[in-house]
Specification:
This protein is mainly beta and about 650 residues long. Helix content is about 10%, strand content about 35%. It contains 5 helices and 40 strands. The strands form 10 sheets. Strands 23, 26, 28, 29, 31, 32 and 40 form a 7-stranded mixed sheet that branches. Strands 14, 17, 19, 21, 22 and 25 form a 6-stranded mixed sheet that branches. Strands 13, 15, 16, 18 and 20 form a 5-stranded antiparallel sheet that branches. The chain is elongated and about 135 Å long.
Length: about 650
């Protein structure tokens, strides 16, 4: 029969000790702790669990040696009666004491509720198990059994006291630090050489930087401080603290490096003054890049050359291969770098890589917002140097026709500028040499129903000019959008004039609404007699009396009739298309239709459209959405043609 003694330490450490049978001699009981010395003041329990009733005697040896330090135990023997299986009484305590030199240590071993304040160690406990009479051993019932000796090695104790301070350490200093990186440093004291544990304690120290111009220390008298580098090169940081036998110090030397992006160069958000001078601080040195062009969609590319510098020069070779580059996408297109990180073509490396964006055969990205400012980023692999950034601007060739999506054959400027002020009724008309027109007005006919919403933009764009030579001057993207706004007013005029017309039966001169460009007009209402033309007369010879045929000649407004004219009867040519029900717009000074005016003729129809655009738009309102080259964000801001 075997009797087993279990030893259990709660809180993460479980152990078992075995006492052998009666005929076994002094079997060893192994105990190995895996508790970390960095767990001070954690409460643990050490429990002995006999497996049968009886008496249990615990004796502890009176001497133990650990390293070169000797500890003496105040011996105490306790006998415990255990009526049933379970833990022993928790009130068994033995106190160890050590005196010697200038240190005093007290050690407490508790059978239950052991406190670990500093560091585990090994002691030897001699355990004897004496079962009740008549059980165990070979002596048989009613006879006194032999004692069953055993050992339990490695029980825990705790230690506290004053120790000598002989060494100081600055923990975990790096070999290199970036110029814009701050570093927290901590000072710790070492225990004496004859102390058996490599334990560290924090301590307040006095800190110094050499040379002083290379960096600063915040809280110079503290356990932990912040070091801020100011200059590249080697810097020595020294911590000094009081020790048991005098001041103790530790010094570390760190090389301060600086990594910068040299290209792309400049700030593309300001006007350029010297974009051809690579040594200038002006904008647009390498930071404005334009896709290749073409007269139809196809593969297009744009490159972004990048250059970095590393200081001091002595570390350039060591760090150049650790530089890592990235750049924002251009719409759906990711850049491919050369050279690039192995296995990742979208991350560049080295001092001077190039990022290349390549479209599909469909052409440039369809959306205007794919272009514009992109962030170039630079990091140092393996170092917490932060991220260097600069901006580069990506443009489309303004006058090419290689965009994807939209109206096939339209120039890039039309495709992308129209996204700034969308109108699905606006189309590019390559045969129109003017700025714009509304066919429902300029091409109105009695025999064909016109498209009254269509607006056509012509090839006079891009340009810089005033509408009809009057009003505000617009250029580039703003000139085209002013044309769209102008033509949108004509669309509104068409709808408003149509509402003034008599009801149509679908087969009369009013079926297509107000005529705008015909020598004979349909701008009439029946007079008091309620008949078209002269009442009772077939004025137009159509074979029908008092009718309004769909094609000229027309009875409405026939000379001698009482029909009522709807348009303004005004002498200057062109006013006969202006409805009398509308107030006349204020004419521009210097125009022929202004009171006492002369020079350019501008009808009320065009005057109203010009004023409409002038009221809604100022020059450069849309300049920030122009990513064409040339354009208002290329080279000089707000200059439409560089």
């Amino acid at each position: 029969m075997k009797n087993t003694l279990k030893i259990l330490v709660l809180g993460g450490l479980a152990l078992m000790a075995r006492i052998g049978t009666a005929d076994e001699q002094n079997p060893d009981i192994e105990h190995t702790s895996d508790l970390s010395p960095k767990e001070p003041k954690d409460k643990k329990r050490f429990v002995l669990e006999p497996q049968q009733t009886g008496k249990y005697n615990v004796n502890i040896k009176n001497k133990e040696t650990v390293g070169s330090v000797k500890y003496v135990l105040d011996k105490k023997e306790t006998k415990v009666s255990v009526p049933t299986t379970g833990p022993l009484d928790p009130d068994l305590i033995w106190v160890w004491k050590y005196t010697g030199g200038d240190a005093v240590h007290s050690f407490v071993f508790e059978v239950a509720n052991t406190i670990w304040e500093d560091k585990e160690d090994t002691v030897t406990v001699k355990c004897e198990w004496k079962p009740e009479s008549g059980t165990g051993g070979k002596t048989g019932a009613g006879k006194t059994p032999k004692k069953i000796p055993g050992r339990a090695d490695g029980l825990a104790i705790h230690k506290k006291g004053t120790l000598k301070v002989t060494d100081l350490a600055i923990l975990d200093p790096p070999d290199y630090l970036c110029i814009n990186e701050t570093l927290e440093l901590s000072a710790w004291v070492m225990r004496p050489d004859d102390f058996p544990w490599d334990f560290l304690d924090s301590v307040e120290a006095e800190w110094e930087v050499t040379p002083t111009e290379n960096g600063t220390i915040d809280l110079p008298f503290a356990h932990s401080v912040i070091f801020t580098p100011l200059e590249t090169g080697d810097v020595t940081i020294t911590a000094t603290a009081p020790g048991t036998e005098g001041p103790i110090t530790d010094s570390v030397t760190i090389t301060i490096i600086k990594v910068e992006i040299k290209l792309p160069h400049g700030d593309p958000s300001i006007s350029a003054t010297a974009w051809n001078d690579p040594d200038s601080d002006a904008a647009n040195v390498g930071n404005e890049r334009t896709f290749s062009g073409g007269n139809s969609p196809g593969i297009a590319t744009v490159t972004v050359p990048c250059v970095a510098s590393i200081e001091p020069a002595s570390v350039e070779n060591e760090f150049s291969d650790r530089l890592r580059w990235s750049i924002d996408n251009v719409g759906p297109i990711q850049a491919v770098w050369n050279p690039h990180v192995d296995g990742d073509p979208h991350k560049g490396k080295g001092l001077s890589p190039t990022a290349t964006f390549t479209t599909t055969a469909d052409g440039l990205p369809a959306n205007n917002d794919a272009f514009g400012t992109k962030v170039v980023r630079l990091q140092v692999d393996g170092m917490d140097c932060g991220e260097r950034t600069t901006n580069v601007e990506i443009f489309y060739p303004r006058d090419s026709k290689n965009h994807s999506g939209g109206q096939a054959g339209s120039p890039n400027w039309f495709h992308y500028w129209m996204q700034a002020r969308p109108n699905p009724d606006v189309v590019f008309e390559p045969t129109l040499g003017a700025f714009g027109r509304v066919p429902g007005m300029t091409g109105w006919r009695y025999d064909v129903e016109p498209n009254k919403d269509r607006i056509e933009i012509g090839t006079a764009h891009p340009d810089k000019s005033k509408q009809y030579g009057v009003g505000k001057e617009y250029s580039g993207i703003d000139r085209m959008i002013s044309t769209v706004i102008h033509e949108e007013k004509h669309v509104q005029q068409i709808a408003a004039a149509d509402a003034l017309m008599p009801p149509t039966n679908g087969n009369d001169s009013f079926r297509y609404g107000w005529s705008w460009n015909q020598a004979t007009h349909n701008h009439w209402n029946e007079g008091p007699d309620g008949k078209w033309g002269v009442a009772g007369v077939d004025d137009d010879g159509s074979g029908t009396v008092d009718d309004a045929t769909p094609l000229p000649p027309f009875e409405p407004g026939w000379p001698g009739s009482d029909d009522i004219m709807l348009n303004l009867d005004y002498t200057p040519s062109g006013y006969n298309n202006w409805p009398e029900a509308w107030p006349l717009p204020e004419a521009y000074p210097g125009t022929y239709n202004a009171p006492g005016g002369s020079g350019v003729w501008l009808s009320p129809i065009e005057t109203e459209a010009v004023r409409h655009a002038n009221n809604l738009l100022d020059e450069h309102d849309y300049w920030e959405q122009d990513w064409g080259n040339p354009g208002k964000q290329h080279k000089t801001n707000k200059h439409w043609n560089d």
